[in-house]
Design brief:
The complex is a heterotrimer of chains A (288), B (341) and C (238).
Chain A (H helix, E strand, L loop, with lengths): L1 H31 L6 H17 L4 H23 L8 H23 L13 E3 L2 E3 L1 H23 L1 H11 L1 H6 L4 H23 L10 H15 L3 H22 L2 H18 L4 H4 L6
Antiparallel strand pairs in A: 1-2
Helix pairs in contact in A: 1-5, 1-8, 1-9, 1-10, 2-3, 2-4, 2-8, 2-9, 3-8, 5-6, 9-10, 9-11, 10-11
Chain B lengths: L4 H22 L2 H22 L8 H19 L3 H24 L4 H20 L7 E2 L2 E2 L6 E2 L17 H23 L1 H11 L1 H6 L4 H27 L1 E2 L6 H14 L5 H17 L7 H15 L4 H12 L9 H9 L1
Antiparallel strand pairs in B: 1-2, 3-4
Helix pairs in contact in B: 1-6, 2-6, 2-9, 2-10, 2-11, 3-4, 3-9, 4-9, 6-7, 7-9, 10-11, 10-12
Chain C lengths: L3 E12 L2 E12 L3 E5 L6 H9 L6 E6 L2 E2 L5 H6 L2 E4 L11 H10 L4 H14 L15 H14 L4 E5 L7 H14 L4 E5 L3 H7 L2 E6 L2 E7 H6 L1 H8 L4
Parallel strand pairs in C: 3-8, 3-9, 6-7, 7-8
Antiparallel strand pairs in C: 1-2, 1-4, 4-5, 9-10
Helix pairs in contact in C: 3-4, 3-5, 4-5, 5-6
The chains are: A mainly alpha (288), B mainly alpha (341), C alpha/beta (238).
Amino acid sequence: MDLSFVILVEMLYAVASLVLISAGLAVVFGMMKVINLAHGEFMMMGGYATITAVGLGVNVFVAMLVIAPIVVGLIGLIVERLVIRHLYGRLVDTMLATWGLSLVFIGLATMIFGNTTTGISTPIPGFAVGDYQINGYNFFIIIVTILLVIAMYAVLRGTRAGLIARGTMQRSDMAAALGYSPDRIYMMTFFCGSALSGLAGAVLAPLVGLVPTSGGAYIAKAFITVIAGGPSLIAGLVSSATSFGLVNQIFTFAISPVIGEVALLIAAVVLLRAMPSGITGRFFKGKM
Amino acid sequence: MKRTMSQDVLITLVVSALLIWLMPLLISTYTLTVLVIYGMLGLSLGLIWGFGGILCFGQAAFFGLGAYTYAIAAINIGESTVPMILAVVVPAIFAALLGAMMFYGRLTDVYLGVITLVVTLILFKFVNSTAGPQYVIGKARLGGFNGIPGFQTLNVPGDPNAYIWGDPYFYVCAVALVIVYLLVTWLLRSSFGRMALGIRENEVRMGLMGYDVAARKTVLFAIGAAIAGLAGALFANWGEIVTPNLFSLGQSAEIIIWCIVGGLGTRLGPIVGAAGLAYLKFMLGQQSMIDNTLITGLILVLFVLFLPRGLVPAIASLLSSIFGHTRRKPSNRRMRRARHG
Amino acid sequence: MAETVLETHGLTMRFGGVTASDNVNFKLKERELRCLIGPNGAGKSTFFKCVTGLLIPTEGHVYMRGQEVTGWQPHQIAALGVGIKTQTPNVMDALSVHENIWLAARRFNNVAESRARADAIIERLALGSIARTELGQLAHGERQRVELGIVAVADPWLVLLDEPAAGMSAQDVDRMTEIIHELTRRAAVVIVEHDMQFIRSIAETVTVFHQGAVLMEDHVDQVMSDPHVRAVYLGKKA
């Protein structure tokens, strides 16, 4: 009983962290068809923003949930204006340019924070279920993720901005023809996507020691989760994160964490080979 | 293809002979050797990406596979000839299987990128996790993140005690690069090479002409992997150790950057880009003012934004406009399309 | 008794709830020239794509010279000796006219033979002055002509052309007509077109598509004077 509860939490946590890791990338890719390979570094910067803010005496939750998203969002805005803006419609070029940016950010972070591991302690204590110790912070991540998905859904479904966003996702040329400046929509989208990345990085920061190259651990997973998810933003994100999260956890429990990771990656290859347009390209067509 | 094949070969031989003679006067042969090896690795991606339109995010996988194949085979065999051959063949077969899976599934650009990237990660993670004593191939322990040291390095074929190292090893690598370069030249001039160009430009049309596009892409992909494998084996010999870092994404990123900076759709570009940037990195490594990675990244961003065709085509068109050659400049479109395949 | 080179049985293609091609039975004899006409959305292009392997039909069968080719890839169909030209010019932009046509010839011939054939076709299509020019720099009409050259150089026995006259000048169309007539000496030709002027100048037998199905099939003069066809085209009740 206790064990199955622990396993359930671990599974949920695995899925939630995948959703969290991929959300920023998914927003940017879904709306703008831009693959932001600096996504991992945006998360890394979210982490550093949190640690710096906490070091300056800010409450840790404020730092994670408010300061980090805003700081990284602004960085994203600058990046969009300086670089990405010039490359719309050139998918491969944006991938390359953002890859370059990711290296720039790693370099900057190394110069500012040094090449050593920094971290903050998890602000929520663990607790015991029967004989097992559960990391209380995992619950926090699961809850943040659920709230995030609900918020994304509400914004897309219920607000004017969300409607414009959905329109742009489907036909950016038509949105432009209706008088919505794609330039501004893209700018806002990139800001939101970056802010989400910053949030994810900040929330996950207490679980991992932060180094300037931390982003590398995220980008590949986020990349495959988003691509495997396919064209529908939320349905794609949740369905592919669930499949990969489950595969990962099952193999982690059955064999070892490394095999879990490898199994996740193999699952991604198999999935893409079987469904080249992603899960939602196949099953949830036309949903969000 | 304005020059004839024999002119091309002649120019290549003269220029490379001059370089092989002069460069050691400027840079130590130890450094030069690795520049040459990186040049070959750059060429391997430049071939499949620039001329076949296949953007592989995991060219490092074949590089690492070549290096590991060499190391493992060398420990088991104790002589370097067969391991060298295996280091070319194994990555090529691996790439052929992977390529067939991707290209017959009609996967394109982004999905191709994801799969090659993921496969590289799988290899990286797997090799990294093989520290335990149970991971043994023949007499060779895989060694996990510590890598495999202490294997038989290159020797004169048939004589395991006659090691080739130092200056002679540089000449071996340089000659190998020249040979590979000439083979690539020949390949691109052959019918197969022109079909590859056709596929890069318009897969649908090639299919409607009756060409089995997937088969040809698979073969080209395997050829690229074979060259990368050879570079990997040469690198293993140079470093005398192989580590999982050979498979790393950073390594893959660098190969892509070499191609962009040097110039896609040219044979020379990726080699120049690789050697130039690797040397730059080497020079930067001797100072600690500005972080190395930052400069690499900045170079990539600036090139994508301002010089997307890369150095070699830009210099070539500059030269031809200065000297008033009548040769028509390759249009901007040509290079840009090359990128998107 | 002329051989049937292209035949479809009950060819049907559905996209979701839309039936774009509805139980089409089609038969084409050797060296026949056939035009497929119909208003926009009549299913001509869907039919064309099903035959050329660009789409896989939901139901029905396609036969070429008696060989079933349903569900084959385009390259397998082309390899039988079928020349295909798609609606939008499908050419290699960064390659020269000569390279484009040479590649098409090379599929079925050795290097020297391909060169000779490419040269011959370039002369026949009056492309000599631009033979070394990249396709990306050519005008639309020239690109269409090059694509016709790509089709012709492979010496096909069945030619499928989707709107070959679209966007061409009167002079270009005349030349196109000439080339197509030349093709029919060796091959059966199917032309999807809705330019009536062009069809009148070239066609003998015409198949009219309407709402995915074949409305009628007859000599061009009969078809043009048929009240049903006129109604379909002009939107009037017959």
